[in-house]
Design goal:
The chain is of the alpha+beta class. It is 47% helix and 12% strand. It folds into 2 domains: 115 residues, no CATH class; 81 residues.
Length: 213
């Protein structure tokens, strides 16, 4: 399968509610703060381990703690909960130093501040049914006369990601996250996936299949 288009990661924070109510949820979208470079288009995030950015992250975590979540869930394979438990326990005991990874910087830090017993792993990122070529919109575009459409699309994504990097340089971490989770940002992100889903024809739809996966 092809990697994700633009790296976005979501924290899921759940707070208690009255017995007759659904629990309120807060979903926090994020770029990958440690720049793993696993995506089709990779956004570049400056070093968040500098004193300035660390202070900003602590401030943002304090703001999130005001929501008083009773669970913090992160993008971590649910099948590997034990590994996350091990990392969190080491962090609580002072034997693990937080990396630039957003799951560390926000997820673990917030859970510790709230006194939670664990951080929940809720991700699933396995392959969907079918053959890899069923999802390979890049190869399909190249062999079906749609290369120009794909090239134009990719240029739009890269320009958008470049604009993001410029914004982050002149704004605080909290402002990064306010932008990432704004209705206008999410609408732009959704449109890029919608446009990608249109790479295909009446017999094969690798773009739509990939977005669905």
């Amino acid at each position: 399968m092809k990697p994700t288009l633009v790296a976005l990661f979501a924290f899921l924070l759940a707070a208690t509610a009255h017995a007759t109510d659904r629990p309120p949820l807060l979903i926090l979208g994020s770029a990958h703060l440690d720049n793993p470079g696993h995506d089709l288009v990779n956004t570049t995030v400056e070093n968040v381990l500098t004193p300035k950015r660390q202070a900003e992250i602590v401030d943002m975590v304090d703001r999130l703690a005001a929501f008083r979540p009773t669970h913090v869930a992160v993008e971590w394979a649910a099948s590997k909960q034990a590994k996350l438990d091990e990392r969190y326990a080491a962090y609580l005991s002072g034997t693990y130093e937080l990396t630039a990874d957003e799951r560390d910087q926000i997820g673990l830090r917030l859970a510790k501040k709230l006194g939670l017993k664990r951080v929940d792993a809720i991700d699933w990122n396995e392959d969907a049914p079918g053959k890899d070529e069923d999802y390979d919109y890049i190869a399909w575009a190249k062999t079906h006369g749609r290369q120009a459409q794909y090239d134009t699309y990719l240029a739009r994504v890269k320009a958008w990601v470049g604009d993001e990097a410029g914004f982050r340089r002149s704004h605080s971490v909290t402002e990064w996250f306010l932008q990432l989770n704004s209705p206008s940002y999410m609408a732009t992100d959704a449109k890029l996936y919608f446009d990608l889903a249109q790479i295909g024809d009446d017999t094969m739809n690798p773009g739509a299949a990939w977005v669905g996966q």
